[in-house]
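Blinded run. Sample ID left blank on purpose so nobody reads anything into the name before looking at the predicted structure. Input follows.
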Amino acid sequence: MPVARPESSDSRVIAHVDMDCFYVQVEQRKQPTLRGLPTAVVQYNSWKGGGLIAVGYEARKYGVKRSMRGDEAKKVCPDIHLVQVPVSRGKADLTVYRDAGSEVVSILSKKVRCERASIDEVYLDLTEAAEKMLAENPPESLEAISEEVLKSHVLGLHLDGANDRDCVKKWFCTNNSVRRDKLLACGALIVAELRLEVLKETEFTCSAGIAHNKMLAKLASGMNKPAQQTIVPFSSVNKLLESLPIKKMKQLGGKLGTSLQVDLCVNTVGDLLQFSEEKLQERYGINTGTWLWNVARGICGDEVKGRLLPQSHGSGKTFPGAQALKTVYSVQKWLNELCEELCERLLRDLEQNKRIARTLTLHASAYKPNDSESLKKFPSKSCPLRNGIAKMQEDALNLFHAGLREYLGVYHARMKESKQHEWAITGLSVSASKIVVIPSGTHSIMKYFHNQNQTCTTTRESNDICTQGAASLSSSGTGSCTGLHLAEPLNDAHEDETKVDHAMSGSEPDGDEIEADDLYMTKVAGNQDLPFSRTEQKLRLTDETPISCSGGSHAVFITVFPFLACLFPFLIC
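Blinded prediction complete.
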């Protein structure tokens, strides 16, 4: 649900940086011989040449579109080079693109506050830097303005047949401009410099929008591509929005946008201006009504959050047409694959960023073959994220069963095999969410174990202490991990509609990456509970971290408090 936030100031300077056809650029950097040639990145599925997920600008000139498949693209452009996206576990592996996006973020974050929005998108808060420039070295005092800046597009600027760059230079250097426009000019100078630095360091071009809020900056960044930037002065906001299709606005591409079109005959953002705030609140509620009223006027108070890392991690795959999954066995097979990939990403985040996640969520898209009129969506389900690949796979399957029962309206424990023809799954994704940074003071449990193993011996006495300690703690309410998590209810995960739909796509081209928040998984004993792999166990331990004490094939989880520290040499034997 959109949240209405008032703008803290009308003099903020916000930029949205969007990489130009990023997947293609990454592949062209890997293979420099492709530069300047018509190129597209295709899915791993080779049917009809594979679906295009990114199309280079050279190929677009021939009429190649992202909706095409490889064979169709070759008919339109015989010389096109089709590069297959990397594949892992039978699905697209986007790691190389995520890493390339991180390169860009690391450069931008050195100069200004950044919020990474996706693989190839970043928001910048330039307010402080622009105010400093305006005070110390305003644009009108500059002896020369770079060619990159003069290529900027200023919305609402009347060219009157004059040379475009002369008009842009005059706008930048006008001494009697309002302060808000001067700040935007300073922001544009900074962004142009940053874009050139990104090009120099990474060989990637990017485009940008510069405005007074995030909403307008994002709208502007895609208006003039590639390798250009667009400025939105306050005086041009109404003209920008009045003819903009309502479905083009973020959070209006789904049910809410459809409701505006059907119920209020609103087809453009400008059409919203005819309705009072009270009328919109009456129809859509106080919060959403106010948000719509603000959108119509270009008002957006969302802050740049200073986030360089993703808020969530996830893995998803689509199963279109005849590939739809129609048995629990086939669903389980793919859930296992998706969970393995998710675990790898969680481990990487843990090692690189010292972050953990706490919630596991399952999304699915489905249809009923015998009920073509059914519009009911498969419900998203979530639960606490448990340590270990096996447990994550088990929980993901349980979440699927819970969602399936609700989707079909069947409430007995398991669907019988004879009824499995009643549904078909066209998309699956698992995500880990509620990411937090590991508290300071945590230590490597593997390092601790290494030190303790020097003096640890396996004796009956140590096993007795371990068993007694586990039993006493279990009786106080912190017993087995299985018991703890089975006591937790399965919760509906109310995600933004567009994010859920996107999570079902297997590509993520030029958009938000499939993600969810990450959980920290702790593993001590029992090979079947390895959180990631046998060779990747750099785990952390705090005073209240659940660990396992295994005297046999079953692990019993206990909570270690400071006064039990003296028992560690025995517990780990």
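Unblinding after everyone has recorded impressions. The longest strand covers residues 424-433.
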